[in-house]
Specification:
By secondary structure, the protein is an alpha/beta fold. The chain contains 15 helices and 13 strands. The termini are far apart. This is F-box domain-containing protein.
Length: about 550
């Protein structure tokens, strides 16, 4: 129903009530017996006749409240675990957009709902590299002129161009988007940030190095998802940040037509206000903000030191090696706010299995730099406030998945999904020249690697802090039945359901101050939940991968 039709019907219903003849109405009609076709309202009734009500007579607050009932969940909130696509924010429901076009008053009344969850699109450019500060200048002007900073709770950044840059010369510099993120969060302050972008663009935005040598092998994956969330209460603690104005690149010729064009890239996107898995405690965030003293000059000094260190180590070795790009010491995106939840969806690796020696291919991804390594100069970019990590991919290579397993950040909860929920394996075009056996073997290798670390005796590194491991995939029935038999003998774990092991925190063995876990027994550490998405018979069993259950000595 259009807004004009709704208004017309509301007015018509009001008029019919005013002229109604049902008992109990204030206006009573008197029928003249000599003129049966005429009506003559009595004087008493005329005095009590109410005026005809119109939606335009409602106060602004009530009008906004009415429009709030047309708020709908954003499409992207339901598909983040599916294969990444650029169209995830598209919606057939545009009621609020239609209402905002009725009048200026309706436009103002719908703004708090219409832009509560906003989207900005950076289209692919065929002529030059898009400079983010220039592209977003009209949008940021629009936000400030309409006082939308406190309105925008969720922001979706949809980037189609992999060559996006923040510098006018287009040069690649370490953490070149640092100023951009701090400037952006000066103008908007969402608790929910979703970036949809090709891996090359995602690497630039997060200061992660991307290996593109084998990018052609992963041609069926056009974009990745990076989703960051934080507690809504953290907004109250956001400090004042000294930033460079993004509008400095805008031209004097920008007019309302430009702002109108920019508004077309904004959509009604809705997601739950509450975080699905918020950390119970948000750590002190003072060190995760770039303040007036440290931004951006301090960051530049760090980058110069990193570059100098990289050059010095190369010179000292005296050995000619392939040039490895210098790495930033931190990522402004993860430092700008105390994020608590991270989701990374890297899409499909199926096409890589069509190539020779597929297990040696390197997927273009931010995962290796995101997790870091044991080397002192390659620390994780994931800030200590992030306690929940969700990793989704479609049949990733075990050598790639090892970047997460071998360098797991300090987390409370990890969610992993390696098999698509939608059956892409039935697509003959995508599965041409692909051996199904290879897909499932790599899937089993990935989980075997993870499970060995989860149930180490005792758990090492950050695994001893992990409390929950959840998989969106089904467990292999053979391996599950074997695990159940062991758990029954272990005694300190319970089979809480099909594919679910749990234990009470009271049964946990305290950590030995001198190192290790007291008793050095298997299944100790902080893990209290191990959960699969049920149990099923896989095409290839994981059982041969384990000399004993979970690859452990028992």
């Amino acid at each position: 129903m259009s807004s004009d039709t709704a208004t017309a019907q509301l007015s018509a219903e009001s008029q019919s009530l005013a002229l109604g003849t049902e008992p109990g109405l204030d206006t009573m009609a008197h029928i003249d017996s000599e003129k049966p076709t005429s009506f003559e309202p009595s004087i008493a009734a005329t005095d009590k006749t109410p005026s005809v009500a119109s939606i335009e007579s409602l106060p602004n607050e009530l009008l906004t409240n009415i429009f709030g009932y047309f708020d709908t969940p954003k499409p992207s909130g339901f598909v983040l675990q599916d294969e990444p696509v650029f169209e995830l924010t598209h919606s057939e429901v545009t009621d609020l957009k239609s209402m905002s076009c009725v009048s200026n008053r309706w436009r103002q009344a719908t703004l708090p709902v219409l832009f509560k969850f906003a989207r900005f699109i950076v289209a692919e450019s065929k002529s030059q590299r898009p400079i983010i500060s220039e592209v977003m200048a009209p949008f940021l002007t629009f936000v400030k002129s309409n006082s939308l900073r406190k309105v925008i709770a969720s922001f979706t950044f949809l980037i189609r161009d992999k060559n996006i840059t923040h510098t006018s010369d287009g040069g690649a510099r370490l953490n070149s988007f640092s100023e951009f993120w701090y400037s952006l969060f000066k103008i908007i302050d969402p608790v929910d940030l979703l970036i949809v972008a090709p891996p090359e663009a995602l690497g630039a935005l997060t200061a992660c190095r991307i290996h593109t040598e084998d990018a052609w092998c992963f041609s069926d994956c056009h974009c990745h998802y990076l989703h960051l969330q934080r507690s809504p209460t953290s907004v109250l603690d956001s400090p004042s940040i000294e930033v460079l104005a993004l509008e400095e690149h805008s031209t004097a010729g920008q007019t309302s037509e430009t702002l109108k064009s920019t508004a077309e890239n904004l959509s009604i996107s809705n997601t739950p206000d509450a975080l699905p898995h918020p950390a119970e405690e948000v750590l002190s965030t003072a060190s995760f903000y770039e303040d007036k003293e440290s931004t951006p000059e301090g960051n530049r000094r760090d980058l110069l030191q990193a570059e100098a260190s990289s050059s010095a180590s190369s010179s000292a070795s005296g050995i000619s090696k392939p040039r490895v790009p210098a790495r930033a010491l931190s990522s402004a995106l993860f430092d700008v706010r105390p994020w608590t939840t991270l989701l990374l969806n890297e899409g499909s690796s199926i096409q890589a299995y069509c190539t020779d020696k597929f297990w040696l291919r390197k997927q273009p991804s931010i995962l290796p730099d995101l997790c870091g390594s044991d080397e002192a100069t390659i620390k994780t970019f994931i800030s200590p406030t992030i306690k929940t990590m969700n990793y989704i991919a479609i049949f990733p290579l075990q050598t790639h998945f090892a970047a997460l397993v071998d360098n797991l950040p300090s987390l409370d909860r990890v969610y992993v999904q390696l098999v698509p929920h939608k059956n892409v394996l039935d697509d003959p075009e995508r599965m041409a020249d692909v051996e199904h056996t290879d897909l499932w073997m790599e899937r089993n290798n990935c989980y075997a690697h993870m499970v060995r670390e989860l149930f180490g005796a005792p758990p090492t590194r950050n695994y001893k802090y992990l409390q929950q491991f959840e998989s969106g995939d089904s467990a292999d029935q053979d391996a599950w039945l074997m695990a159940v038999e062991y758990v029954k003998r272990a005694g300190n774990w319970n089979v809480a359901g099909e594919g679910i092991f749990s234990r009470n925190s009271e049964d946990m063995v305290p950590e030995n101050p001198e190192g290790g876990i007291e008793g050095n027994s298997t299944f100790e550490g902080s893990l209290i939940l191990w959960k699969w998405n049920g149990v099923t018979k896989l095409p290839i069993s994981a059982l041969p991968l384990y000399d004993r259950p979970f690859g452990l000595g028992f």
